[in-house]
Amino acid sequence: MLLDDPRSDFGDARRRRLGMPPRRVLIAAAVAAVPVLLIVLQIVASRNGFEGPLESLWSDYVGRPKSVSMPWAGLALALVGLSWRRRFVTVGIALAIDAVFAVGRVLLGGSVTIGNGAVIALTGVALVAWFGWEGKDRRNALHAAALGALLILATKVGDVWLHITVMAGPNVLDRYVVLADHAFGQPSWMVGQALDALGPVAPAVLHWVYIELPVAAMVVAAWQLRRVASTGVWPTHYLVRTFLVLGLVGPVVYLLFPVVGPMFAFGPDGHGLQIGDYWPRIVPPLDPHPVALPFDNATPRNCMPSMHTAWATTVFLHSRRAADGSPAPRWLRWGGAFWVLATLTATLGFGYHYGADLLAGIVLCLTVESALRAPERGWDRARTGLVAGGAALLGALLLTYRFLAEWMAEYPVPAGVLVLSAVAAYCWAFYSVWFARTPVPSAMDTAALPAR
């Protein structure tokens, strides 16, 4: 449902000719895989003493939600498949349920937290649509509800995966990455010192932007899907597809290249295992013979690549244009630009990432976006080249950071020029293929056609 548009010409007949299973079979398999994955991760979490996805999901329904904004972001995404009347009714029910839960918590001496109502209302929409609605209303509601649910479930899976990165990577490679970052001018130390000099307001704003990235994604996705309820036609590509695929692909690299970040490996949050108290005041001295650093069993190894950078770049790309290729509203374009710049500043200024992480995140985003964008165009030479080139460049970056870090630190200018030029060239190639030309008309341009 997410990766195959029902109006594409890649139908079941063509699938049979290529020996592929019908689309309905693939959808059923994908739907069945979700609970299996949640159960497996819950077993892993229970055996290792941390909260699993089913426990976290249960808290969203009847306990204290782990996130306030995520349930409501998921519900907001589900609303794009409903009529305006049904949207108002759904939001009203969600607010009423949240109010009841909030009052109950206060009476029991707990804190005021919302989110239960959004999850319950989203579930209710799916059930009512499945059993009570028909035709276009049913299809749109179920499709949108699935997107909202996947957005919430993805965060549950991600939380467990962070624990798995700790189990899989007892040693981290921060010594190598900090050497590689000499070629980029140690941006984490530079931005961290700048934020310290700005006072409390700027860091507070950046922290909010950083943690509320899903809300920005929801706003852009809701704008892209705003005509779905009235036309019954879904665009062939939209932000949620890239967002979810990045969440599947990117964290795999955490296992291959475990890194914890400057504030942990070189700062005060290393639980006694940090190399020293350097960040952000003092750039650590060059280590000519770096080795892997044994680290604690609590800090996630989730730096390489920077997924916040990849996701924020996705928000930026999808805030540029409408599905028909026309410019997006000015408020959305400025909002997307602000969000990506603020996110990049936060990732560096709070010591969460090195500059090398951000470059890898950008390349990963553009590679995945190239694989998914404009599916009606097919796998022509340009798309194939971008995807293959992006995968090769990401692999080259990881190998360079690991095996040429000493050389990058010893010769920072030529190393920095080479790496930055390669990334810039790939960005230019991406722009030339997807933005410099008039895009192929998408399904949203044929909204007048009856939905099948």
UniProtKB/TrEMBL annotation:
One of its GO terms (cellular component) is membrane. Keywords: Membrane, Transmembrane, Transmembrane helix. Its main location: membrane. Pfam families: DUF5933 (PF19356), PAP2_3 (PF14378). Residues 200-366 form the Inositolphosphotransferase Aur1/Ipt1 domain. InterPro entries: Aur1/Ipt1, DUF5933, IPC_Synthase-Related. Residues 26-164 form the DUF5933 domain. The lineage of its organism: Bacteria, Bacillati, Actinomycetota, Actinomycetes, Mycobacteriales. This is PAP2 superfamily protein. It comes from Nocardia transvalensis. CDD domains: PAP2_Aur1_like.
